[in-house]
Amino acid sequence: MNELCCEIGYKSIRHVGEQLCGDHVDVVEQEDGSAVIVLADGLGSGVKASILSTLTGKIVSTMLAAGLSLEECVETIAATLPVCSVRNLAYSTFTILHIIQNRTAEIIQYDNPPVIVLRDQVNWEYPRQEMTIGGKLVYRSVIRLQENDVLIAMSDGCPHAGIGFSNSFGWKQEEITSFMEAMNYCGYSAKLLSSLLVDECDKLYGGRPGDDATACVVRMRRRVPMNILFGPPRNRDDVKRMMSLFFAKEGKHIVCGGTTSALAAKWLKKPLKTSLEFVGDMPPIARLEGVDLVTEGVFTVNRVVEYAKDFIGDNARYDEWSRQKDAASLISQLLFEEATDISFYVGRAINPAHQNPDLPITFSIKMNLVQNLSDALQKMGKRVKVSYF
To answer: What is the pTM of this model?
Structure first.
């Protein structure tokens, strides 16, 4: 298996006064581990632009992922979305990042701002080939990927940021590049890099964007496995199998739940050092030699799910969990920013304490937490495997 993987993050802001964003990002994963990422920018803003960009993104990503040629994709777009007769502009522009088995990137650009590629922390002038397809001028590049390469695609709302407000000439491409070089030097995740770029655009617009603005970032990074043990097995005879599989896996190990951590301590033959010190409203963290993080179960995981849903959305709660040292924040830091491949080991034993009708915790809620968290992690681009016991 290729040791590299692509971490994908994107964020958008809407034109002031509009309910829908006229930009759209589509990500399609292929069976061979490749990914097709399309950033489409619909003409204008609002509902019409949103429909046009969504249609463009879906057509291109679906066709490319199905193995059809670039020429067929662009010709289909040209036939489906003709040029506006009034403004002589395409109804939707697009950027395609085709990450092929995490080894090669095919970059297709049509009327969007040029993709920025950062290599060895600085801007890299990659080769571009001009092509005319379906009457449209398209730029195509094929580059061999390296660890820590960062690819930054954006809609024209980014270089237009500040026009008529803070900057008469907008945010120039070279200025955006310098800004992203500085941010990338800090080693931030793809999601955070996209958020930082779009948030800066929002500031230049004075909080009232004059255009939709979207940034999509792909970071090539080495795979980092992570393992989570959550709940005791339904059958006590499965404890040995569950523990042996969990601790045999490469990577860091997180144990969630009081009974679960007691079973892990017994298996490791190490003392479980508990604490009564709450951090904010979060239950205490325990210590167990051989385990990287030991936390309470349902309450803590529920908070992690909340953070995960926000992370794949507006990422508004980033400051809340990225700097804190409570259990939910630490799990979030490990899963969202460090891990690439996550294995869940979930016990299906029914906790008698959870059957109290006065408590809002049920077995189904516990299973839903696992499902919701794994779904969110997959949307972040993580490889997730869930094993039940």
So the answer is: 0.87
